[in-house]
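Continuing the series of single-chain predictions for the mutant panel. This is the parent chain; the variants come on the following pages.
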Amino acid sequence: MPQQLQQPRTQREFSDESIAEVKQIIRDFLTRLRYRDPHTPRNQKLRAEISAEINFWDVQLSPKQIEEIADTACTIAESAYAHITYEHQRVVAKFSAHVVYVDNLDIRDLEVVAQFGHRLLAAADFGNRSIERLTALLRGMYALYPRRACDSFIVSTLDFLISVHDELTSGGQVVIPGATLHPWYMRQKSGIGPAYALFNYFVKDWRDPADRFHLQLVPDLEICTDMIKYVSFLWT
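Parent structure:
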């Protein structure tokens, strides 16, 4: 049976001054990155495939929710990963669709999230088609990416789901004085920076496996990815 969904998280109320301040923070952040809109065209084939995949999950999403998840996931693949093949873009888009679904809509049965690691190791049934499809996607990545990257995809996914569960089960908890790194720690764990950094480079057989120079570039990409999510979190 498909799992019931919670209502989307209620957006916090912001004053006009707060909204203007956050917008300026985002503009300043993008300026420092020297960001320029790539004006990437939409890939209608990719969007149709991802929409069909989300619909196949059968998790009681409305047509509008399916469209929004697919648009976000495909925009990530189309714009940030325009340099990789369509096959790899599809993997990024599918992975992103699962992330958006779990991170923004939440799964009412939190036990599905809490038991992900255990059930993954035990090859047990998840009881949720979205999570089952995510697991199948992770397993299939070994045919497209080197083992080093695929292992990191799995670890990043585990960190993400653990962090989402922590966030959903500790709502209203006040950060104690002195625990100033806790919000950043949670964003870092739930940002899936390692996976999105590795999506850039680790196409299978693209270079000699003994050549590890590109690993030195991953930390910067990881931090950049997590910071983008951290800054966007101020807005949502």
